[in-house]
Design goal:
The chain contains 14 helices and six strands. With 410 residues, it is mainly alpha-helical. It has two domains: 3-214, no CATH class; 262-391, Serine Threonine Protein Phosphatase 5, Tetratricopeptide repeat (Alpha Horseshoe), CATH 1.25.40. Strands 1-6 form a two-stranded antiparallel ribbon. Strands 2-5 form a two-stranded antiparallel ribbon. The protein has a two-stranded antiparallel sheet with strand order 3-4.
Length: 410
């Protein structure tokens, strides 16, 4: 078996196994779900599927002990972890490449199938958060059952220290941090809660695995190429969904894209869609994350200022518009000036609004509707009736119209 296939299989096996082990730990050590019937049945089915896979592809009939054995969930967990170690060892042997790819891919997909079921139980029955696996070649999607929105489970994530899993008590919201090296959670500096609406499902496509190995590129380059392709595909789907006003679908695509390549662009888009869906806290949090990822990305500052402006935080919004104006990376630099002008209009400081709009027009001289707005404002100022200009809408160039008379510009 080629070494690059061994490396990829070992990486994907490790990712799937670690994810399942985190779920086992959360279910059977941190929660009281060891006696939960659905979790018990899912764990037993997982073990049955693994044994069936090994019987069909690895062991001879003489090696199989058909004596009935009753195992509790922790006993099954130990045996599943033993099979993970066995497969790791098998990768070191000189075995048939095609057979090993089939075996490992089937095992990984069985793992993800039941990890998904266990994660749904955990999300429904507890307030524990378990980190999802890192995506390399593995694909991620949201099954129809969890994207119907009406029945999508929302579970809380408390921002906490890395390496800790946080349990939220339903009565008072206090958190209990449990140290575990295989479990991570976001930082607790903000001290705010956020919600995740769906549990994704993961799947290893054998064809993608082989294409990655046959491309001739290095392992790292191949994985990066696969991620970039998937990222671009999901971003395109997200933009198409926005165009068709399917905002929940767009959010799903953008969130999925961020799993492949988290950057300020996709994080800002995620925030924007959250704002359209009425979730201003998630919108602002996404912008803050975008700024953290790349402090030079201007649209994130501008959008954050716009969300604050929509909430009536006018003075606070100016700070973010000023940062957006100074940001090195900004293709449409006129937008923060337009939004600052909107803020001044709300404050009835029409002269300063005019200054901001004129600066925006200097940066975007062919923006006809902005020019029309400036002309109307100037005429109104001359006539002493500038307050009427507050009702003059300007066309939203890059985003959907807002409920405000002066929409958000990115």
């Amino acid at each position: 078996m080629r070494n690059n296939i061994k490396v990829l299989l070992a990486s994907e096996l490790s990712s799937a196994s670690t994810y399942l082990n985190r779920l086992f730990y959360a279910l059977y050590d941190l929660s009281s779900l060891i006696h939960n019937q659905k979790a018990k049945e899912a764990t037993e089915c997982l073990y049955f599927e693994i044994i069936s896979l090994f019987e069909a592809n690895v062991f001879t009939e003489k090696l199989i002990d058909i004596t009935p054995v009753i195992l509790n969930p922790r006993g099954i967990k130990d045996r599943v972890q033993a099979t993970q170690k066995l497969l790791d060892s098998m990768l070191l042997l000189h075995l048939n490449e095609e057979s090993m790819v089939d075996l490992l891919a089937d095992y990984i997909n069985i793992t993800y199938e039941f990890a998904y079921k266990l994660h749904l139980i955990l999300a429904k029955e507890t307030n524990l958060e378990v980190q999802f696996p890192r995506i390399n070649i593995t694909e991620m999607f949201f099954p129809e059952a969890t994207t119907g929105r009406n029945d999508a489970k929302k579970f809380k994530i408390i921002e906490g220290e890395k390496g800790k899993l946080h349990k939220i008590t339903p009565t008072d919201g206090n958190t209990q941090a449990i140290q575990d090296p295989n479990v991570t959670a976001p930082s607790s500096s903000a001290g705010k809660q956020k919600t995740t609406e769906a549990v994704p499902k993961f799947f290893l496509n054998k064809k993608s695995l082989m294409n990655c190995c046959d491309s001739g590129a290095s392992i790292i380059d191949s994985i990066e190429l696969q991620r970039n392709r998937k990222y671009e595909e999901l971003m395109q789907k997200g933009h198409e969904a926005v165009y068709n006003k399917k905002h929940n679908e767009a959010l799903e695509h953008f969130l999925n894209a961020a799993k492949h390549k988290e950057n300020s662009e996709v994080l800002t888009l995620i925030g924007w869609v959250y704002s359209i869906l009425g979730n201003s806290e998630q919108a602002k949090n996404s912008c803050l994350r975008a700024i953290q990822v790349n402090p030079e990305y201007g649209p994130a500052y501008n959008d954050l200022g716009s969300y604050l402006l929509a909430e009536g935080e006018i003075n606070e919004s100016f700070k973010w518009f000023d940062l957006a104006k100074k940001a090195p990376i900004y293709h449409n630099r006129e937008y923060p000036y337009i939004n600052a002008g909107r803020a001044y209009m709300i404050k009835k400081d029409y002269k300063m609004a005019l200054v901001e709009f004129n600066t925006a027009l200097t940066l975007a001289p062919f923006h006809q509707e902005l020019q029309q707005t400036i002309d109307r404002l100037k005429n109104s100022l001359k006539k002493g009736i500038a307050h009427k200009v507050e009702q003059v809408p300007t066309k939203n160039i890059s985003k959907e119209s807002s409920d405000m008379n002066w929409p958000i510009f990115e």
